[in-house]
Amino acid sequence: MLESPCEHLETILNSVADGVFTVDEEMHITSFNRAAEEITGFSAAEARGRKCFEIFRTGVCNSSCPLREALASGEAVINRELDITDKNNRKVPISISASVLRNIRGEAVGGVETFRDISLITILKREILEKYSFRDLVSRNPVMRRLFDVLPDIAASEATVLLNGDSGTGKELFTKAIHDLSPRREGPLVVVNCGALPEQLLEAEIFGSKRGAYTGSVENRPGRLEMAQGGTLFLDEIGDLPLPLQVKLLRVLENKEYQPLGARQPQKADVRFVTATHRDLEKMVLEGQFRRDLFFRINVVKIKIPPLRERPEDIPLLVDIALDRFNQRYGKKIRGFSSEALQLLFNHSYPGNVRELLNIIEQTVILCRTSEIGIEQLPAFFDSGAKPEQKESSPQGQLSRETIAELLARHKGNRSRVARELGVDRTTLWRWMKRFDLADQ
Amino acid sequence: MDINQQVHRLVKIAVPYYGTLSLPPLGLARIYFVAKVDPATRTAVNIELKVWNPKQKPNLSIWLRELGIAGVICSDSGSQYQIALNSENIWVLWRQQGEVEEVVERWARGEIEAPAAFKCQNPTNLWCAGQYEAMDGATFQQKLANYPRF
């Protein structure tokens, strides 16, 4: 039996996998296909005649409705992502396209909207993320996965841990995971960056000082060791610890005792130590820059964290996490990177590691005005195809003195800006400056 | 040149990053692991990430063929896209779960069940020339004996 033109159109619409609905000029729903019923949970009979915002209940119905935009401008809105609330009050992420519906004379008589349920992709990505997440860390790299496997056992012990990895590889996150999994999790986790302070200040910072210990010391000041009592003390960049302080630290590790500056009696230290460095401590021992006995004391359990360039398979996962985080922070709805931009992200060597990647994504999210990040939003060195290792000169794989000096001059000595451009934190930049005698700039 | 040094032709296998070849309703996966498998050792000697750019190469199967991909291993339960892949002389193994290295080496060791029949029509494709059966693990073992070395 032949269908009427109207029935035929309905059959066509119902066979489309995307949700399709039409509205009149007052935004009353006039048709609603089967896929729309499945995605929203409302039947066509329930939807027809009602205002579309009553059915879709998005956060943008009153402010930036894609259908109203299309009706007002006459231009189609393509692939805009937003969340609707379905009949069972569940959030459903959808991708919407909207355009004006015209009659035979070309007059606007309403609008048509097609939409796709993209929750399957969201679920798939979430499942992958959950599968490869460990505490605040994420990786699908076999070396990293093996580290995740042994981390609970390491945490359960009282052993001193030495984390070795380049700047930005997540040494602090590893420390947090070790602390959170350890019997000391109820105690504090205290961090000291040994490369960030001059020797005198660092000593007082770690061991504390008594009133009158030095000029200007007007009160007793607890050190980080005291603050970490019952918990974990994380000594970051321990390779930068001056030799005299290495002796003091060795005493703490051996005797569980320390003496604050100006104190007459030693104090007990009930602290678990986690240390970290990006430097080759064994080489430093041979060169006489690091005490052999201290090295053996801290090198009980050694964890080598691979740099990001050795685990590019983590880049898509980190991109997904960062996009979620920065979309939320900056109120954006960015779906992802274009294929060209993604390929450039894969080709980059990341001297600043995960921190650099996250900084790049944050910057691009801020600059992006569309739903997809293109190569034009990436930093200039991506566009030129130049890889940062071409600029590198030092054996540690860091930048040359000239490059850092040039950046400091360009940013008028603003270290935060230089650090941001290099994708490293201010402490790392400061350490590099110190090494290159640029600290006075 | 050391004439005793034999260089093996590596077999390239593509595995979608998120496991599934199709990502409904957005279409086909864009990010792939490309694993180079050494037929001699049956191990993945190198795995890298590649991004398919639909704007530059609208046809995924042609892009995969141009990369020199012999087969695709994915976790989906099968789709009509197999026809397009097979027409480019690329076989596909569905319903495979696990890490990329794991699934690729499982295939290389002949531990994966035969996929749907695949007829290679391309006599210039050294890997599948004369191959009229599914490229499953058992066939792989057989082929190893006669596989040309370069």
Comma- or semicolon-separated keywords:
heterodimer, A: 441 residues, alpha/beta, Beta-Lactamase, Rossmann fold, Helicase, Ruva Protein, domain 3, 3 domains, 5-stranded antiparallel sheet, 5-stranded parallel sheet, 20 helices, B: 150 residues, Nucleotidyltransferase, domain 5, 5-stranded mixed sheet, two-stranded antiparallel ribbon, 4 helices, disordered N terminus
Structure description:
The complex is a heterodimer of chains A (441) and B (150). Chain A has 3 domains: 5-117, PAS domain (Beta-Lactamase, 2-Layer Sandwich); 142-304, Rossmann fold (3-Layer(aba) Sandwich); 308-435, Helicase, Ruva Protein, domain 3 (Orthogonal Bundle), CATH 1.10.8. The longest helix of chain A has 16 residues, at 315-330. In chain A, the strands form 5 sheets. A 5-stranded antiparallel beta sheet of chain A has the order 2-1-5-4-3, with helices on both faces. A 5-stranded parallel beta sheet of chain A has the order 9-10-13-8-14. A two-stranded antiparallel sheet of chain A has the order 6-7. Chain A has helices at 5-15, 34-40, 44-47, 52-56, 66-73, 119-132, 142-156, 171-181, 199-207, 224-227, 243-255, 281-286, 292-298, 315-330, 339-347, 353-367, 380-383, 401-410, 415-422, 426-435, and strands at 19-24, 29-32, 77-85, 91-102, 108-117, 133-134, 137-138, 161-164, 189-193, 232-236, 257-258, 267-268, 272-277, 301-304, 336-337, 372-373. In chain A, 33% of the residues are buried. Chain A contains 20 helices and 16 strands. Chain A has 441 residues and is α/β, with parallel strands linked by helices. Chain B has 150 residues and is of the alpha/beta class. Chain B has a single domain (11-146), classed as Nucleotidyltransferase, domain 5. Chain B is built from 4 helices and 7 strands, in the order βββββαβαβαα. Chain B has helices spanning 60-66, 81-87, 100-108, 137-146, and strands spanning 11-16, 22-23, 27-28, 31-38, 43-51, 69-73, 91-93. Chain B has a 5-stranded mixed beta sheet, with helices on both faces. A two-stranded antiparallel ribbon of chain B has the order 2-3. In chain B, a hairpin with a 4-residue loop joins β4 and β5 (43-51). The chains are: A alpha/beta (441), B alpha/beta (150).
